[in-house]
Protein 1
Amino acid sequence: MIGNLKDLTINRDGTQNITITVKADFRETFDELATKEVEVTIKPYSEHRRLDINARAWVLIDQIAEKTGIKKYDVYREAIKDIGGVSDVICVKDIAVDTLCRNWRDRGEGWMAITSPSKLPGCTNVTLYYGSSTYTKAQMARLVDSLVQDAEQIGIPTMTPAEYEKLLDQWGRKIEKKREKADEKK
């Protein structure tokens, strides 16, 4: 749900009240949860990519896999590793590495966990790559750009830059329309 922080007050007992304005009808959910303890997560909003861009990526992945004989998900994973800003490196106690890696990879095909030695005794560095389902518009654009370059290098015809920009623009307009509809429902 998208919203804005409006106010923060601190009570005498040290508890804090946060006022949030939301852009959707929250009445039913509020009524359902008003008497329960809830978990709250607040983070900056980021626009996620549109399915047309995702479809474009998978068409390219499929074409590259067909032409090269590389498995489709291997093409996908290598493309993810080639772009920046879609991974974190953490240092983990050796005893927890296998469990972390298994649980991370269980999230989907693009969720990779790659280990490397740590300078700390009893620890391993783990690079955690996020699957493209979590990517912002900019991250997804980098993934598709990388796939386009790979496709062109092996002679696969690709979308023109103008056609690609049109897809990105359509994505932006769709997000704006969703916001307008949410504002109208208020």
Note: The helical segments are 27-33, 51-68, 72-82, 94-105, 137-153, 161-185.
Protein 2
Amino acid sequence: MKRFTLVVSVTLAVWLLASERATAQHGHGPSGGPVGPAMSQHGQMQDHSNRPSRESSQSGSTNQEHQKMTASEQLDRNTHLATQLQGLFPAGTDLKLASSGFKNLGQFVAAAHVSHNLGIPFDQLKAKMTGDSPVSLGKAIHELRPEADAKGETKKAEHEAKEEIKEAEAASKNQATS
């Protein structure tokens, strides 16, 4: 009888652990609702939990506060990134002025890379992307350089922007802790 009780107990424990692990892998908590990060329709991470993110709890600011800042404000805070970007523009370019009107820092940095990579004057690219009838970076490239691979160049510039922003933020954090 002891052996039977032991086998049933072990089987029950294994079954409970397996069902918890499967539930966690599918992103649902005990109530059936999502927990932790999930992917949006556009492939961006969304955190549906009520917990502060690791980034916000460490830096003292939330992702929402970071997203509400304009590209100019973010460049003011991240001088390392501003210094790197200055190399993509002619000497004396005011990055605060250049970044005004863009939806976010990533869009501005990607546009700066496209301008530099394809030799498209930045003011023309900016006008297409931020004017009265704004268009996407890819459409702006297509309109200004029809012979260019707009999709490929957009992907390349967005990747460059993402990496550059990530590296600059890491450098700023390292500098702040030193």
Note: Confidence is low (pLDDT under 50) at residues 22-62.
